[in-house]
Design brief:
mainly alpha; about 0% strand
Amino acid sequence: MLKEIVIAIQSYFRAHQFIIKHRLWKWILIPGILYTLLFCISIYFFGKSATEVIEFLMIQTGLKNWISKFESSWLGFLFTFAGIILWLLLMLLYFSLFKYLFLIIGSPLFAYLSERTESIIEGKEFTFNLAQLWKDMLRAIRLAIRNSLWQTVYAISLLILSFVPVAGWIVPVVTLLVECYYYGFSMLDYSCERHKLSASKSIEYISKRKGLAVGNGMVFYLMHLVPILGWVLAPSYAVVAATISLYHQEESEL
C-alpha cells in the first residue's frame, strides 16, 4: 500500500509536467476557477453553521452551564479541545458533501480530461466521442452518489466516536483518510470505466489498490493548504494524476 501511495504522489509531479508539455491549461483553469469560487463561498457558510451547531448542542445538552460551574482548567481544556475536534469533523462532513456536488457538476469535463490524458500517454489519436462521454458522466454521477452515501455513514459513526474523550482525538485523522480514499476512488474510476469495468468490478479493482486512491486524495487535500493557486489546480490535477498513476501501476505489475 505504501508503494502505491508513493506512486500516486509522484503522479502529481508527472501530471504537472504532462499538463505543461501538452498545453492542457484551459482544461485545468476553467473548472479550477469555478471550483475556487464555490469553495470560498461554501467554506464561509460551512464554518459559520458548524460553529452554530456546536453552540446549539452545548446549550441543549446543558454542557455549557455544567462546565461553567466548575473551575477546573483541565476540564475546560478537554471540552474546548473536544469542541475543536467536533468543529473539524463537521467541516470535513460539509466539505465532503460539497466535493461530491462538484464532482457531479464537473463530471463531463473530468471524464473528457481523463480520456484525453490516456490517449496522449498511449500515443493514440484522440477522437471525441459524445456517447462515451455521456456514459462516463452518468457512471461518475452514480458512483459519486454511492460514495457520498457510504462516506456519510462512516462520518456519522466517527462523529459519535469523537465524543469519547482522548480516543475521539484521532477521529479527524481517520476521517481524513476515509475522505482521501473516496475522493481518489472517484478519480480512478474514470479510467476503469474506459476499460469496460462494471461498477462492481471497478470497486473490487480499486479496493485492491487502496494506496493509489488514498495517495491521490491526500495530495488533493494538501494542495488546499496553498490558497487560491492550490484550490484552482487541485481538482483537474487529481484527474490527470489518477490516470497517470493507474498507467504506471499497471506497468509495474507486468
